[in-house]
Amino acid sequence: MNTAENNNQTPKNLVSIVTFNVIAAKTAGGGFIPWVNIANANEEILNLIDADEIVIPEHEITVSIDYPSLNPTSFTLFSSIGFSRKSLLIEIREKFLMLSKEESFEIAGLDLVALDVYKTNSGKIEVTLDIDL
């Protein structure tokens, strides 16, 4: 991305927050857990509440990862129908698996709490991750 493009994209306006709630299958009282463990995302997708709901209707988004990576990075995703919690979680998990191998960090303790969805002045959608340890 060139500098002129980057300058046109600021400031960003928060347009939504996407949460990840998982049915607590291992607790006696039921309930839910308000995050998804990135390392166990494939298993937790099975209990993800509203997994197939389209939470970002745009067809192109940029996802930024700045933690725990030593080299903050971003990647672009495309979809003809928008993005569901499930599709976003799958893509984010795959990216974290790749980054963890490249940079030798452990993802087992990383929980994805939410996604902050921003719209830039140029109309592009940028997503940042709310990661908890």
Structure commentary:
This protein is an alpha+beta fold and 133 residues long. Helix content is 22%, strand content 37%. The chain has helices at 3-8, 41-44, 85-103, and strands spanning 12-19, 22-23, 32-33, 36-37, 54-56, 60-65, 73-78, 83-84, 111-120, 125-132. The strands form three sheets. Strands 1, 4, 6, 7, 9 and 10 form a six-stranded mixed β-sheet that branches. A two-stranded antiparallel sheet has the order 2-3. Mean pLDDT is 89; it is low at 1-9.
Features:
disordered N terminus; 6-stranded mixed beta sheet; globular; 10 strands; alpha+beta; two-stranded antiparallel ribbon; single chain; 133 residues
**Percent helix among the residues?**
10-25%
Radius of gyration: 15 Å
Question: In percent terms, what proportion of residues is strand?
Answer: 35-45%
Mean pLDDT: 89
Question: What oligomeric state do these chains adopt?
Answer: single chain
String of helices and strands? HEEEEHEEEEHEE
